[in-house]
């Protein structure tokens, strides 16, 4: 039977091409142009992919940025009987501001899974909690910060003052940061990029234990897919900041738009893929200029088999 992973090489091309296009804009001060270049490159690849695809959730509406629009049909087999029907959660350029400033961890990223198995919602915000496999079932957005910190420390066999909880440096997180620091937790602050921060938190080799705080919802769905493949923890709760998003969230999800979404609610199929390509160097190397060629570095998490593969490719200019 056909599987999402049958299309892996196409999805990798989509993030590779988006990363290469965005990399031209590194350090040039204009994230929107970088974003537009990534969107255009990704759409061009998707136009030729032999599937009946659809964007379940994507980034761009919230900050009026270029985007693959939510509900957009993708692929060359629209409506064709027997074609793989796949949903995509996508951010052609995650961490846009970091491309403008040439800072770490900007990536082109997507999740793919069978139709209906990725949360279909507007591009609003999401409160997130991510951590390694050890904290699955131990921490929850239903509990308060102090409880989660104690529970995570116990699960990781650490004392609370040895914990590192990464948070995005935003005014909306002032209380959260204060609470964590009052508990004697170390709080590394990041400017952008909570997908890579969650991957860090999931990894037993990093010194980050948890990710907390509010980021964008599409990246929440993408992160949930990666965490499912890694057996790590993820939960999210939508946060709306305007009436339009609230109304559309109700249209798409029913009345209970502020419910807690577990990892496997956000990505409800094990036949799922997470694919990312590095734009600026960070947890993945960024796009490299090799003279007449460019090198691009990607990772693929195949949820169906729990593998994480790192792939490098060269393209002629
Ligand atoms: C962005 C982006 C992050 O959250 O900041 C976004 O860079 C939304 O937050 O990586 P702001 O509107 O406060 O910038 C993320 O996309 C992650 O979800």
Keywords summarizing the entry:
317 residues, alpha+beta, Fructose-1,6-Bisphosphatase, Chain A, domain 1, 2 domains, eight-stranded mixed beta sheet, six-stranded mixed beta sheet, 9 helices, globular, binds 7-O-phosphono-alpha-L-galacto-hept-2-ulopyranose
Distance between the termini: 37 Å
Radius of gyration: 19 Å
The main β sheet shows up as: 8 strands, mixed
What is the CATH top level name of the largest domain? Alpha Beta
Low-confidence stretches: none
Number of domains: 2
- Measured by DSSP, the beta-strand proportion falls in 25-35%
What sequence of helices (H) and strands (E) makes up the elements? Answer: HHEEEHEEHEHEHEHEHEHEEEE
Calculate the mean pLDDT score and round it: 95
């Amino acid at each position: 039977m056909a599987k999402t992973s049958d299309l892996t090489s196409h999805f990798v091309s989509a993030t590779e091409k988006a990363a290469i296009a965005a990399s031209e804009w590194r350090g040039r001060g204009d994230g929107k142009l970088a974003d537009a270049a990534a969107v255009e490159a990704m759409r061009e690849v998707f136009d030729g992919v032999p599937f009946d695809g659809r964007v379940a959730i994507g980034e761009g509406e919230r900050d009026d940025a270029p985007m693959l629009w939510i509900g957009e049909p993708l692929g060359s087999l629209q409506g064709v009987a027997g074609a793989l029907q796949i949903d995509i959660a996508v951010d052609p350029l995650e961490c846009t501001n970091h491309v403008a400033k040439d800072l770490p961890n900007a990536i082109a990223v997507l999740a793919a899974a069978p139709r209906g198995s990725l949360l279909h919602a507007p591009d609003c915000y999401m409160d997130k909690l991510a951590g390694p496999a050890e904290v699955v079932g131990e921490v929850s957005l239903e509990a308060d910060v102090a409880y989660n910190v104690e529970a995570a420390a116990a699960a990781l066999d650490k004392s609370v003052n040895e914990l590192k909880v990464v948070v995005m440096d935003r005014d909306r997180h002032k209380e959260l940061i204060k609470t964590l620091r009052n508990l004697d937790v170390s709080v590394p602050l990041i400017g952008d990029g909570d997908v890579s921060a969650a991957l860090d938190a999931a990894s037993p080799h990093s010194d980050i234990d948890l990710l907390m705080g509010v980021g964008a919802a599409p990246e929440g769905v993408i992160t949930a897919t990666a965490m499912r493949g890694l057996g790590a923890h993820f939960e999210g709760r939508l946060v709306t900041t305007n009436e339009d998003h609230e109304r559309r969230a109700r249209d798409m999800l029913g009345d209970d738009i502020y419910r807690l979404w577990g990892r496997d609610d956000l990505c409800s199929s094990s036949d799922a893929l997470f694919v990312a390509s590095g734009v600026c160097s960070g947890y993945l190397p960024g796009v490299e200029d090799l003279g007449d060629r460019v090198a691009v570095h990607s990772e693929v998490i195949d949820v169906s088999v729990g593998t994480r593969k790192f792939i490098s490719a060269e393209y002629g200019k």
